[in-house]
Amino acid sequence: MRQITRQKIEVAALSLFARRGLSVKVAEIAKTAGVSQGLMYSHYPSKDALIIELVKQAMTISGEYVKSIADSDGTAVDKVKSITDMMCKMFSEVPIGIDYFMFMVQVGMSSLVPKEGLTFASALPHPAQILADIITEGQADGSIVPGNPFQLSIVYWAAIQGLCGYAITGMPVSHEPVILNRILIKESYL
Hints:
Strand content: under 5%
Number of helices: 10
Helix content: over 70%
Distance between the termini: 48 Å
CATH class: Mainly Alpha
Structural class: mainly alpha
Number of strands: 0
Radius of gyration: 18 Å
Order of helices and strands: HHHHHHHHHH
CATH superfamily: Tetracycline Repressor, domain 2
CATH architecture: Orthogonal Bundle
Shape: elongated
């Protein structure tokens, strides 16, 4: 029962933070989760503690998954396609992934993030750097478009962010991987 209550709080907070920013009040989170503020505080002593937990979850999930793709056998094209497939599945099969993604966008834009959350996040591999390393690998074999690998990675993730922004408002989003793959992969490798 305790774990179910924590999940209700986390899902409610994630949704609210993703859509409205980190300034959402504890009372709003508790109300959305269907719990009292007192019960919420028995699970998380502060809103900062909740934010830190959600940052840890988001960074662990995304960092580990993207890193596992980067460390896998296969070409840079295979790896980019795998990351793209993962992100496109998020739009159609794992909508909470959109909330995690947009929550982390809010975290990145906010001065309200507790220092502990930023410290944890900086200790993990960052998906933008991991993708930049894959891009460098693909540029070496001629399969990935030329340009600054980190900037290309940022453009790719910004496209994902834009799609998440549309999806979070309920607008239909194409989950066709080839559209995203065209940002990085040369046409002859698609």
